[in-house]
Fold these 4 entries.
Entry 1:
Amino acid sequence: MGIGAIIGWIIIGLIAGALAKLIMPGDDPGGIIITILIGIAGAIVGGFLAGLIGIGGGGIIWTIIIATIGAIILLAIYRAVAGGRTARR
């Protein structure tokens, strides 16, 4: 895995995180860095799940769609976990 692939994952993660934030607006316990990290992790999770059910592969648009779905899932989990911690203060 070269530096180009890592930069590609970061860019896809940034796009997926931003799209997930647009689809799921609201207050998040983290900032833009957390959104980017959730997007990158969402790209990984989405790609893994798509491969498991046999819909993996495709072009850049398909990759962004799958990454965004993964980011939405992770953002919902993050809000449930981190949001619950801040509400108990």
Note: The first helix runs from residue 3 to 23.
Entry 2:
Amino acid sequence: MPNEAIFILFLIINLLAPIIFLKGGKAWLYSYIAINGCILIPIAPITTDVFGYALSVGTVAWAPIYLITDILTERYGKHAAIGGALLSSVTAWTVLLFIQMVLFLNPSLASTELHNSLGISYQYSVRMIMIGTFVFLLSQMVDIHIYDYLHKKTGEKYLWLRNNASTLFTTFFNNVLFWGLAFGNVLENWFATAMAAYLITVVVALCDTPFIYLAKRIKPVDLK
């Protein structure tokens, strides 16, 4: 199966899962955020070629968090969404901390190869994940406040507007800040690279619009 087909399938499943979890209510949405935070750690360093671009798999892993925080803001209010954004980052940091603690252990002979492979993977990812999660948390706070502001102004109308306007602005903010902090002193053309990454992120982010409309049709058990 080509990368493009797998990428699209991965994205659809990752955006559909929160809709399924929404039926269980706010606690279930939080649980999916935690699951997503755990998934992000091992896959964040991986890149793949999709439609002629080198794309971080983490881009897809983060995508449902924007959707979930928008759903939380829409259904449960701004403070519930802020809690979800905090949970996402704290989960990633906690998983990373425990992995680093394991890497400090001296492995048995049978586990040396696995231990060394894990060390190679997470030697790269520590700095990137720390920067990425910090920037993502900051951008999520911006996203939530923009969405909440637009929700108060538009009421139940223009769902597509508040969903896309908040996401398009904050993904720009997220990409510029991340690439500036992570590669500003390494890559001369880091801004151009950030813009290319932003365009890809925009395509991924816009894919969640049909799913938030689908979420509006779900009646969570804790809101019946």
Note: The longest helix spans residues 112-154.
Entry 3:
Amino acid sequence: MENILKVSSKSNPNSVAGAIAGTMKEKGRAEIQAIGAGALNQAIKAIAIARGFVAPQGMNLVCIPVFVELKINEITETAIKLIIENR
């Protein structure tokens, strides 16, 4: 999937939730990438908010966490990718 939503510890969960809801409606699936505890916290909050956004359309969001390794400025970082699907 080419459109991975990148979340930081400073990301606004409501804004990310809107992006998740839009991606879910458009593609039926979304992916979020987070590096660090603060970023993961914002991502989880955003998923919880997005569930409320898409529930009226009959969607029930679930997320699957996966570890991924990223190379950033020649340094390998471990990130968590959250795959969001409709159950």
Note: The chain has two helices and four strands.
Entry 4:
Amino acid sequence: MNKVQWVVLLIVLSLVGCYDDKEGCLDPNAVNFDVSADKDCCCQYPALTLNVSWKENDTTFLSLNKVFLDDAQQPYKLLGVRFYLSHLEVVDVDQNAVDVNGESEKWVYGAGNVPEKAKVSDNVLLIKQTQADYKLGTFKRPGTYQGIRLDIGLDAQQNAVIPDSLSGENVLGFKPDSMWVAPKMYIQQQWIVMTDTSSSMPQVDTFQVLSVQGGVELAYNPLLVVPQGANYELKIAVDMSQWLHNIKWGANKMEILQKLADNSKDALSLVQ
């Protein structure tokens, strides 16, 4: 090898030695996927959110100031509606379910109301009449989805959580608008209703539902395709005409509570 060849070889080797691997995300399911990267780093995944729309019926959005007529043709106003959703799963066309959240250890009331630590699902949201959007985390599973499964209310372990042991930021934590009540339980649905609306002293009643509707299934029609690297916004409509079907606010309170629990599963639908 002559002198010129040695010089060329040394230059090539020096250039190779100075080359640094390009860092970037190599996961095609991430929003910042970089096909030119050499070293996997810093992946950011699509956001999974829930949007809830409140409707008077299939087509009209709910007005908070409107006077409605119940099934006995008596006027009323809805002053507040809240309920828990839990165990929300997205189901693909192969019946595979993706849990939108995991579980963590929490303090709960155990046997004999003795506090103990237990694994509790973090898959829970408090849906409020005054709120539309809820952050669920990230979504790493592109594909074709046929619907979702959820519970309206909390499971037994979630219902046994000690709210004072959690931060106020936690859905089940104790705060001024908490759904936790003595003795040691959470309300699953809360309805605040004003009747005698034409009176100078209208009556305001609070209806607290403790029943849970489990295994509610909502279907997409047509199927929903979630592309790689795309944000996924779940959209649920709450239809008050379905939820308050056959409700007479002047009837027996236990009868009203049972109907609110029974009607809940038919009041939710998926929007595309």
Note: The radius of gyration is 26 Å.
